[in-house]
Design goal:
By secondary structure, the chain is an alpha/beta fold. The chain contains eight helices and 14 strands. The strands form three sheets. A ten-stranded mixed sheet has the order 7-6-5-8-9-10-11-12-14-13. Strands 1-2 form a two-stranded antiparallel sheet. α1 packs antiparallel against α2. The chain starts with a helix and ends with a strand.
């Protein structure tokens, strides 16, 4: 077993490497990775680390400090996500001291803990985890974080609190109205827009001054486990088809007015446009 000092050194090296790999320049994010012990969130060993499409069993804590998935529930393929991906997402969201963050799909709380560090003691993080057993683990893992609350329920609901940042870690087929309504002016929403079982991309949306047009852009391709929500097979099929080429990279705004020829994808009361806001 490694000493606390050795673990701290391991985490610091891991944090530097992950942030360099992700192109993250925010020293606060590197510090959040360095201060958050992944093994405490992964639970007691043995751990199951994803490697080349399967899991490898390990008892060596060093294996947790790579850019890899770590299983929460290996039978269902539920994992703590890849660190470099989340580091880049946090940089794009840029949580600030005193802000309120909604973390939807919080899992066992590993990245929730980092968000709590980024918003500080004057900020607040509400984590939503629909699986009650995993939510219970998150509550235990975050019991010392006074600025975090974990809700064992869906994060797709009309009663969400107002937030400056909404970070979604489950695939969704649209920017749900409840998320948009919860955003404060200038607030940022980042979520994986993807059909279940298909590749999509992380979509970053900012609530702009205009009620009709908000800045929006895709970051990079992703494949998350889908949100538990009402299924719409036709919408899922249309969405999967839109990612068949690279046109998604041209999206520049989320709009709520009349559609025009710049429409990339449309839903009920919203559409993504290749024109800027």
């Amino acid at each position: 077993m490694m000493s606390n000092a050795s673990n701290a050194t391991l985490r610091q090296k891991f944090a530097r490497e992950i942030c360099a790999q992700a192109g993250v320049r925010d020293a606060r994010i590197e510090q959040a990775f360095a201060e958050t012990p992944r093994e405490e969130f992964a639970g007691p060993p043995p751990w199951f680390v994803a490697s080349f499409g399967s899991y490898v069993e390990t008892r060596d804590v060093v294996d947790l400090y790579r850019d890899c998935l770590v299983a929460i529930d290996p039978a269902r393929g539920v994992n703590i996500g890849e660190p470099a991906l989340h580091a880049r997402c946090m940089q794009e969201l840029a949580p600030r001291e005193g802000e309120t963050v909604l973390h939807i799909g919080a899992g066992v709380g590993y990245y929730t803990a980092m968000l709590a560090r980024l918003v500080g003691a004057t900020g607040k993080v509400v984590g939503y985890e629909i699986d009650p057993g995993i939510a219970a683990r998150a509550r235990t893992n975050l019991r010392d974080c006074a600025n975090v609350r974990i809700e064992a329920r869906s994060g797709i609901a009309p009663d969400l609190p107002e937030a400056d940042v909404i970070y979604v870690n489950a695939g969704a087929i649209e920017p749900y109205a409840c998320w948009r309504a919860a955003l404060r002016p200038g607030g940022r929403l980042l979520f994986p827009l993807e059909a279940p079982g298909a590749v999509g991309a992380m979509l970053l949306v900012q609530k702009g001054a205009s009620a009709a047009r908000w800045p929006a852009r895709f970051l990079f391709p992703v494949a998350f486990i889908a949100c538990e929500a009402a299924r719409d097979a036709a919408a899922e099929r249309r969405l999967a088809e839109r990612f068949a080429d690279e046109s998604w990279r041209k999206v520049r705004s989320l709009r709520f007015d009349a559609r025009d020829e710049a429409c990339w994808l449309a839903g009920d009361g919203w559409w993504l446009s290749t024109d800027p806001p």
